[in-house]
Amino acid sequence: MAEQQKGRVNDFVLKIANVNGTGSASANSLLMKTIFRMGIPVSGKNFFPSNIQGLPTWYEIRVSKDGYLARSGAVDIMVAMNAQTYTRDLQEVAPGGVLIYDSTWPRDRLLARRDIEIVGIPLARLCNEHFSNARTRVLMKNMAYVGALAALLDLDRAVIGELVQETFARKPALIESNVQAIDLGFEFARANFTCPLSQRVKAINKTAGHIMIDGNTAAALGCVYAGATVGAWYPITPSTSLMDAFKSFCERYRKDPQTGDKLFCIVQAEDELAAIGIVLGATWNGARAFTPTSGPGISLMGEFLGFAYFTELPAVVFDVQRVGPSTGMPTRTQQADILAAAFASHGDTKHVLLFPRDPRECFEFSVLAFDLADRLQTPIIVMSDLDIGMNDWMCPELTWDATYRPDRGKVLSAEQLDAAKSFHRYLDVDGDGIPNRTLPGVHPRGAYFLRGSGHNELGAYTEDSIEYQTVVDRLAKKWRTAATLVPEPEIRRTSKGAKWGIVAVGSCDAAIDEALDRLAEKGIYADYCRIRAFPFGKKVTRFLEQHDRIFVVEQNRDAQLKTLLLVETQYPVTRLTSVLHYGGLPMDCRCIVEALEQAAAPGVAA
Amino acid sequence: MTSIAKPKIVHHGLKRNALGLTVRDYEGGMSTLCAGCGHDSITAAIVQAFFELDIPPHGVAKMSGIGCSSKTPAYFLSASHGFNSVHGRMPSIATGANAANRELFLLGVSGDGDSLSIGLGQFMHALRRNLDMLYIIENNGVYGLTKGQFSASADLGSKAKRGEVNKQPPIDPAQIALALGGTFVARSFSGDKDQLVPLIKAGVRHRGFALIDVLSPCVTFNDHEDSTKSYAHAREFNHRAIHADFVPQASPIKAAYDAGEVFPVELHDGSRVLLRKLAHDYNATNRGAAIEYLRARQRAGELVTGLLYIDESEPDLHGVNGTTTTPLNRVPFEALCPGPEALAALQKRFR
Question: Cβ A229–B100 below 8 Å, yes or no?
Fold first, then answer.
């Protein structure tokens, strides 16, 4: 059985089971970054509870020389630090794998599996003997397993040392104890076990030009670079770290060096209703403004989102999706707000959605969202999710074009208003469905009355059917214009002229990337269309039409993306097959491979 | 928000203000409220106050929510920007507007349904932020547009037109404002223009959240004999505790008042409010005492009016935030974007 694991250099999954609140995050991040700096592609997924202290938490690191960033679905090495979850953690280890546990306390049940290697390291005893402070003893157990893994996996100790220095640069007093704890684990492992294991790492050069970053941080950076000045929010998992990051970037980049005056204003609102209201008040005045939220916040923002659609106010909303319905599972991931976001609010309302696949696209789409919101004078909802938003992803370095200038859309200046004969807020002067707008206080001729009640194209109140329809029909025209401005899908074609196509959005991408390779090995070929925005645009329709059968991969129970495809295209429902993954953990490629394999099996009608 | 355009007739010799504008330039469309509605008197007071303060109309934003009161911005300052928000959410829009453009003057008009029921949370949080705006509640104790339901400000024992008796205690916005640290708390009656106009002027010039709760009778649904928000009841039980006169910047204080009787308060732009006690035991700078006074008179069935409390020393939203004095919507992009070098340097931390 150990044969299966032989030669697993730079290709395995390491999972650490821990207790929430025991300080394992920095140890886990240290492990991941060490591997990354050794040039080996890596991804880290944090499975954490909605809790501050005491409940189980896991961190899963996939090391992949081939650069696969999705979960693999298997665990090769388990570091079992949590007695509560011991039994299931043990069961999860793949045959031939390794279980590392704290052998301070003997655990007979561990012997129940003979198909894996058991590595006992007395982490608590080592730390208790070495450290006197109770909290330090707990924290340093984590660093001790990092040390043990350094020996077992052959991690570069110089890199670890460098990372410890950087991590605790602001608290140098902690460096010594951390280094000691790492040494304790390292020495014990080396003295008592054959090191390294067959699952181990070896430095290569596949991470140059890349960074490890989470989507919320990247999106926040996008807000800073796009020139957003007003941020309003109500704290909600998993979007909170987006505003935290925006705040810390603004403290760094947006303070007047002389006076300390802030070139930003962040308002922590009383709820999400107020948060979106603050955004709209700001964009009405021409500032770039945004709010990060999650599903429950989208529900609460419904009324104002419809108001913004109808009154034509820009807004940028980040929906970092979590598991619903209702409160659901706040610390698990899903793509289950697609329909709620697309049609948020009553009446004939629809919203432009952007679907980033990873943190890099969170950065790019964040900037783009502000341009589109200004250009289209409507809310743009960036559909991130917990997996993208809160996990560190390896992606190419972010770049910035120094010549970029914001597209502020059709905002009339004082000079333009001075020269104009008249201004009417909702008149389609250019034939693209997008009217001119003005900002308060700029010019007497620019004043108009903004209202969510029925209005005509001149901006006046109306209850007249024809006048009302003129406005909503023009909004439909604007929607068609939007379809030409949003990012096109990313299409990947096999060289084999595939008759099947896969359609997906966002964070499914990493799993599909791997699934396509696995399927090709079995002689099954499919083209892939990654939709990046709603409305979909012509290229999506064409992709559908070019394929006999479409597999729609998404992370929700009700096939929401498929529903949208049926609403917006004429593609026959009978040729659409859903591949659904909605348990709340980031998806791996298995469900996709299985679905296409099954469809390709002899006797199954295609 | 129905309104009828009003022909603009400027009589020869009509008085002009410092901007060369006449009072007509501060009017709006024809009101479509019921004849005799208190709200129309408040509209007239707003027109007069803004005209006399020489405020350029296009630098004002009229903010409202939903309800009869929220319709009134269509009836004044037609050259100003208007924002008719969703029900009860005007304070959040105003917050964003102020965050983005601190030089825009915000005039909020709301009602007792809009501010004390559906929008009570937003009203209180705007107060708590000391948002720089004038916020007028046109308070009539009743829902007009939906035809006569009690609002949250209806007094205990007050009878609806159809005979139902209100059994829940009223929410008093002035007491809420005092309790939440409001920095300008006033109350008036739509039928008392002499009191209301100087209050509006002082509220405009106050830095921070200026609340004026104005009893404004609903002639259609709440002006009957057993109503405590009728014209007759208001006239009988209006307890004018303290009068505020407004003195514009650089105007000398007329020596009409004896020192000791009059207490001047300087506003942030240099204009002044002269507080004159009508009730000898009233103190408009003592928050706790003001709350006690209001409660005691409320128990006696009276409505205390005047500039109930003023504090010019508290910072507003931007003061707390430490925002730059240039309105954020005018800060050039070059000052906001850190550029490619900063991005490259920052990313070292992500390796």
Answer: yes
Complex ipTM = 0.96
Q: Tell me whether strands A117-121 and A93-102 are parallel, antiparallel or unpaired.
A: parallel
Q: How far apart are CA A343 and CA B211, in angstroms?
A: 37
Number of domains in chain B: 1
Residues A406, B333: C-beta atoms closer than 8 Å: yes
Domain A490-600 has CATH 3.40.50.920: yes
B210 φ, ψ (degrees, to nearest 5): -105, 115
Looking at the complex, report in whole angstroms how far the Cα of residue A605 sits from the nearest Cα belonging to chain B. Answer: 49
Q: Do B329 and A284 touch (CB under 8 A)?
A: no
Task: Say if the Cβ atoms of B86 and A303 lie within 8 Å.
Answer: yes
Token digits for B348?
A: 């070292």
Strand partners, A394: A212
pLDDT average per 10 residues of sequence, chain A (606 residues): 64 96 91 98 93 91 97 96 92 96 81 89 96 92 97 98 93 93 98 95 98 98 98 98 98 94 98 98 98 98 98 98 97 98 98 98 98 98 98 97 98 96 95 98 95 96 97 98 98 91 98 97 97 97 97 98 96 97 97 97 68
**Test mutation, B75, B101, B124, chain A, max A CBs within 10 A:** B101
pLDDT at B8 over 90: no
User: Which alpha helices (DSSP H) does A456-559 contain, by range?
Assistant: 465-485, 509-521, 538-545
Output DSSP code: residue A208: T
Same fold, A2-192 and A490-600: no
The pTM assigned to this predicted structure is 0.96
- Given the candidates 3.40.50.720, 3.20.20.80, 1.10.3720.10, 3.40.920.10, the CATH classification of the domain at A2-192 is 3.40.920.10
Residue A284: list chain B partners with CB under 8 A.
83, 93, 96-97, 100
What is the CATH superfamily name and number for domain A213-396? Thiamin diphosphate (ThDP)-binding fold, Pyr/PP domains (3.40.50.970)
